Amino acid sequence: MNMKTLNIEKWMKVNCTGSFNLHNGLYFKSYARLISKAGLSNHLHTSQEIKKVPSISVKEDTRLITFRILKYNPINKDLPRIVEYKLKINEAGPMVLNGLIHIKNKVDSTLGFRKSCREGICGSCAMNINGKNGLACLTKISSFSDGIIELRPLPNQYIIKDLIPDMTNFYNQYKSIKPWLIQSNGKHNLDITGKKIENLQSIEDRKKLDSLYECILCACCSTSCPSYWWNPDYYLGPAALLQAYRWISDSRDDNKLQRLMYLNDTMKLYRCHEIFNCTSACPKGLNPANAISNIKAEIQKNIEEIQKLESEDCDINSN
């Protein structure tokens, strides 16, 4: 065996180890082709070279999974009812959302639910799964040992149809906290020549936004909060307040005091009674309760300036 053969063997060990372990036959076929291409004599036995990969028979999983889904269509004025769908596990797929898609496509085309990214990014498929809010696309069917999955729309929301809640109030509350950068006449956006420049931020200031900006507005936290159930028209809820703190913490924003003044309200902020349902429900592992506590601390830290701003605002309105 010459040096060229040894080099090829070394390359095969480095690059084809995985193939060798998984598919013995494919390894030898690849090796034989490489030897032939290099113009070398193949020192392997023929039986090794063309060894076939044994076929593997996969036994079909016939276990059943039961979906118990709340069906309700306000247009038809029918009472809400629970409908059961029984699927084989291999038909249902790995995630709850896969099962819903199968039911929609193959069993009941009238079933209503939201979906989009299927990867826990958009928050569209948020629903109540076996009593806990979560994302259908991230919830594994295999996590339910009894084979029963009960699905409801997010709690305390008007129902458009089946598992589709009306998110109008939720998004209006989000809009009310002004989720965008506000700067003093845009001056920080201009250099001395009046040309627009970037809003730069230090690494340290950027880190302050971690565990805040990742919110996907799925509403799992807000709709799991009893305070939000009792006061949905007044209490902003964990999601909106988490986002409010995200902009309060942004070093590029000039509107911190105005944001705090808006939140310094008995109902908007202080309806939070630290139940912590929001933190346990968040599918992204965020901590809205901690953000709310930080907002309260910021208000106390800046209370004199906030009160002064409030009095000025009252004077303007009175005139």
UniProtKB/TrEMBL annotation:
<keyword id="KW-0411">Iron-sulfur</keyword>
<keyword id="KW-0004">4Fe-4S</keyword>
<dbReference type="GO" id="GO:0005743">
    <property type="term" value="C:mitochondrial inner membrane"/>
</dbReference>
<dbReference type="GO" id="GO:0008177">
    <property type="term" value="F:succinate dehydrogenase (quinone) activity"/>
</dbReference>
<keyword id="KW-0001">2Fe-2S</keyword>
<dbReference type="GO" id="GO:0046872">
    <property type="term" value="F:metal ion binding"/>
</dbReference>
<keyword id="KW-0999">Mitochondrion inner membrane</keyword>
<dbReference type="GO" id="GO:0051538">
    <property type="term" value="F:3 iron, 4 sulfur cluster binding"/>
</dbReference>
<dbReference type="InterPro" id="IPR025192">
    <property type="entry name" value="Succ_DH/fum_Rdtase_N"/>
</dbReference>
<dbReference type="InterPro" id="IPR001041">
    <property type="entry name" value="2Fe-2S_ferredoxin-type"/>
</dbReference>
<keyword id="KW-0813">Transport</keyword>
<dbReference type="GO" id="GO:0006099">
    <property type="term" value="P:tricarboxylic acid cycle"/>
</dbReference>
<keyword id="KW-0816">Tricarboxylic acid cycle</keyword>
<dbReference type="GO" id="GO:0022904">
    <property type="term" value="P:respiratory electron transport chain"/>
</dbReference>
<keyword id="KW-0560">Oxidoreductase</keyword>
<dbReference type="GO" id="GO:0051539">
    <property type="term" value="F:4 iron, 4 sulfur cluster binding"/>
</dbReference>
<feature type="domain" description="4Fe-4S ferredoxin-type">
    <location>
        <begin position="205"/>
        <end position="235"/>
    </location>
</feature>
<dbReference type="Pfam" id="PF13085">
    <property type="entry name" value="Fer2_3"/>
</dbReference>
<dbReference type="InterPro" id="IPR004489">
    <property type="entry name" value="Succ_DH/fum_Rdtase_Fe-S"/>
</dbReference>
<feature type="domain" description="2Fe-2S ferredoxin-type">
    <location>
        <begin position="77"/>
        <end position="155"/>
    </location>
</feature>
<keyword id="KW-0249">Electron transport</keyword>
<keyword id="KW-0408">Iron</keyword>
<keyword id="KW-0003">3Fe-4S</keyword>
<keyword id="KW-0472">Membrane</keyword>
<protein>
    <recommendedName>
        <fullName>Succinate dehydrogenase [ubiquinone] iron-sulfur subunit, mitochondrial</fullName>
        <ecNumber>1.3.5.1</ecNumber>
    </recommendedName>
</protein>
<dbReference type="InterPro" id="IPR006058">
    <property type="entry name" value="2Fe2S_fd_BS"/>
</dbReference>
<comment type="similarity">
    <text>Belongs to the succinate dehydrogenase/fumarate reductase iron-sulfur protein family.</text>
</comment>
<dbReference type="InterPro" id="IPR036010">
    <property type="entry name" value="2Fe-2S_ferredoxin-like_sf"/>
</dbReference>
<dbReference type="InterPro" id="IPR050573">
    <property type="entry name" value="SDH/FRD_Iron-Sulfur"/>
</dbReference>
<dbReference type="InterPro" id="IPR017896">
    <property type="entry name" value="4Fe4S_Fe-S-bd"/>
</dbReference>
<dbReference type="GO" id="GO:0009055">
    <property type="term" value="F:electron transfer activity"/>
</dbReference>
<dbReference type="InterPro" id="IPR017900">
    <property type="entry name" value="4Fe4S_Fe_S_CS"/>
</dbReference>
<comment type="pathway">
    <text>Carbohydrate metabolism; tricarboxylic acid cycle; fumarate from succinate (eukaryal route): step 1/1.</text>
</comment>
<dbReference type="InterPro" id="IPR012675">
    <property type="entry name" value="Beta-grasp_dom_sf"/>
</dbReference>
<dbReference type="InterPro" id="IPR009051">
    <property type="entry name" value="Helical_ferredxn"/>
</dbReference>
<keyword id="KW-0479">Metal-binding</keyword>
<dbReference type="GO" id="GO:0051537">
    <property type="term" value="F:2 iron, 2 sulfur cluster binding"/>
</dbReference>
<dbReference type="Pfam" id="PF13534">
    <property type="entry name" value="Fer4_17"/>
</dbReference>
<keyword id="KW-0496">Mitochondrion</keyword>
<comment type="function">
    <text>Iron-sulfur protein (IP) subunit of succinate dehydrogenase (SDH) that is involved in complex II of the mitochondrial electron transport chain and is responsible for transferring electrons from succinate to ubiquinone (coenzyme Q).</text>
</comment>
